[in-house]
Amino acid sequence: MASVRIGIGLPNAxxxxxxxxxxxxxxxAERAGFASLATIDRIVYDSxxxxxxxxxxxxxxxxxxxxxxxxxxxVRPTALLAKEAATLDRLSGGxxxxxxxxxxxxxxxxxxxxxxxxxxxxxxxQLDELRRIWAGERYGTDGPIGPARVRAGGPELxxxxxxxxxxxxxxxxxAGWTLAVAGGRGDGGVGDPADLVAGKAMLAEAWARHGNxxxxxxxxxxxxxxxxxxxxxxxxxxLRYYAWxxxxxxxxxxxxxxxxxxxxxxxxQTFAAAGADDIIAFPCQARCEQIDLLAGxxxxxxxxxxxxx
Length: 309
Known about the structure:
There is one protein chain. This protein has 309 residues and is α/β, with parallel strands linked by helices. It has 11 helices and 9 strands. It has an 8-stranded parallel β-barrel, surrounded by 7 helices. Helix 1 (19-32) crosses helix 2 (50-59), helix 3 packs across helix 5 (119-134) and helix 7 (193-209) runs parallel beside helix 10.
């Protein structure tokens, strides 16, 4: 486990989380030794915007990596997303990693005034455009879209989703890959450790075919709930979050959350053995005790350090 970086999600998508909890959670998670803080994205939901939540976290932390795993790309104007991400990356001293994916909830697209049709093509165009903007390409007569980048090429990119579709994007854009475990393939881009192993092979093939050096970064994500009433908290929160996919699938996903220390350790060990570079555990409860319970379970101070900016 020592070679794997362990991160924790912010409770930005746990309904009812108090605003002050986000900053308290971030500072406590950094002190506990976690390598990264991550957010997930919804629009039509009782949740905080993923980039704004990370901006709040950046203000009270110094070393921890900030990640979106993942942000729904096609619902956002690309130039604005590029500027917001570059701003957060600069304000945080180069600590932002932008995980981006297709999204699949019709209501999120509808309120953004965007159709789900053609979202894959739009994401590909968006990734190209993000790279150009972060490289400093000029626009109009006033120059590039600022602020100036902290790192050459701008924030690091991760692409989320089913490897059957994500592998080519990862290789083409020289990005990393992120996969969430929430009950098995078919859940809109989530899977299990076996999918990580299969996905790693697909990524390696596409990566080599595009002539890329090295290998892509792999980030695995799972959901956890620990302590008193852990299973009930997880069931209630996961059922609500996945209600849009129907009762049967939502129940299966809810049952995949790790609700005991042994289950958390098993997932971490299994994902590490499958080749994950980073493992992010997202909370099903918006209570800071979850940070300490998770840290005590996985031993974050022995689980790797944040990536260098």
